[in-house]
Amino acid sequence: MYRVFAVLMLFILTAGFAVAPPAAAQTQSLAAQSGASVNPHTTPEDAEAGAKSFRRHCSTCHGRNAEGFRGPNLTTGSFRHGNSDAALFRNILGGVGGTGMGGVYLPDRQIWQIISYLRSLSQTPQEAPIEGDPVRGKALFLEKGECATCHRVNGQGGRRGMDLSEVGWRRSLDHIRAAILKPSEVIESRFRLIQMTRSNGETVDGLLLNEDTYSIQFMDENENLRSIYKSQLRSVYKPDLSLMPDYEGAFTKQELDDLIAYLHSLDGEPDHD
Ligand code: HEC
Ligand code: HEC
Fold first, then answer.
1. Number of folded domains in the chain?
2. Rounded distance from Cα 166 to ligand 2 centre (Å)
3. Residue 264, in any domain of the structure
4. Which of 88, 197, 222, 259 is most buried, most CB within 10 Å of its CB?
């Protein structure tokens, strides 16, 4: 019995070794590809094909024109996880470990074409540079706009809106401007308003977090997480409105530029706060 087991083990071990070389060869060729320092597909047609692949595979996270959405704005020509063609190739194919960027497995050629497309974006400036003062913008953010009542920057502020510590990296200037002026047009499902009326007539407002057949989880105005049974509710209303107030007309043009310049400067590095 023992002998049979030993022979079996030996068999399994050799079988294991037999498959090892191709696996190693594969890793090597992957390293060789991503180690290629020059993009072999850089014609305008390549960039155009890259734009198409990008819309198909990347835009759900990076926005239709790479302007940023759940993933960062990729139009600036500067990439935090590496600027070289080889680094971009590696990050697209293999993903960025420990983040929402998983690898996107595509043929080499398609990846290089996407890289050509991304390069073409930073050669033609996408947006006019912002002419604001980030220091004045920060004051507006904290005081006149009272933005920190809902938004955190580098650990300080409220939780009803998203953390903005990296908003300048994640979002384009146009997106930031639209988010301030027309928040209800750029609603994220994470931040839906919900208004409920209890059977006794009492109304409860909050941010919808989750909903199942029997209950609704929400964050109330004091940032408490609460759950309520649907059976206790007379009515539920989910207006198509953002909790983010509409600031159209609230700031002068200069103030708005200052505010945007401040948000644009927020790249996740605490020294810029
Ligand atoms: C599921 C969402 C998702 C998809 C799909 C996705 N990405 Fe990303 N991507 C992210 C996130 C999130 C990050 C930011 C990682 C971090 O926090 O550092 C990122 C980061 C990156 C970076 C690094 C940016 C930098 O500053 O270094 C590149 C380049 C990139 N993505 C390209 C692509 C391309 C090209 C595709 C399509 C082939 C793609 N991504 C598809 C979510 C996504
Ligand atoms: C009452 C809470 C509240 C206040 C006050 C508030 N916001 Fe918001 N903000 C939100 C919520 C919620 C969202 C996300 C929901 C949405 O997109 O509608 C948001 C979204 C944003 C975004 C988009 C971020 C992204 O990644 O897309 C920006 C930029 C922003 N706010 C800036 C500001 C600025 C600047 C101020 C002050 C002038 C401000 N907010 C005041 C709640 C608030």
1. 3
2. 13
3. yes
4. 259
